[in-house]
Amino acid sequence: MKRHITPTSVERVMREDDFIVSMTNTKGIITYCNRIFIEFSGYTEPELLGSQHNIIRHPDMPRAVFKLLWDKIQNREECFAYVKNMAKDGSFYWVFTNVTPTFDPAGNITGYFSVRRKPKQSGVQTASTVYAAMLEAERKAGAANAIAASNKILTDILNEKGLSYDELVLAI
Fold this sequence. Notes:
Elements: E1 19-24, E2 30-33, H1 35-41, H2 45-48, H3 63-74, E3 79-86, E4 92-103, E5 109-117, H4 121-141, H5 146-161, H6 165-171
Antiparallel strand pairs: 1-2, 1-5, 3-4, 4-5
Helix pairs in contact: 3-5, 4-5
């Protein structure tokens, strides 16, 4: 079910010892969420379970970041990222996330496991600047070319810094 939520400027800040944990199936449907996820998202457990994980997607997040994340985890790799999430009441919270695929005994991907913690402020500042440029490129390019345009901004930044995506995210 798609909910229309108006983003606000109210920020919620994770505590140092918080870990937001969730699991999804291969389609991104939430199958598990811990109490910290429930607290920060503002949704109840019944509202979260069975919903798409993008229920907490903030409109300030470029689509290309999620494409990168999905490409990595579907390629059996872990992904680290700074993500701005939106709670049910429109407030937002930044996380530093690690998403990994889960496997059955035969080695098939069965879902994804995500652990989020309080991000470094320097990382949030860097990610905010990069994401704003990526979002602007997405808007200018239009829906059909948004991800490619946004990805080019990210690639150019990485090339300029001489870093891979993972190196950048872990360094900021």
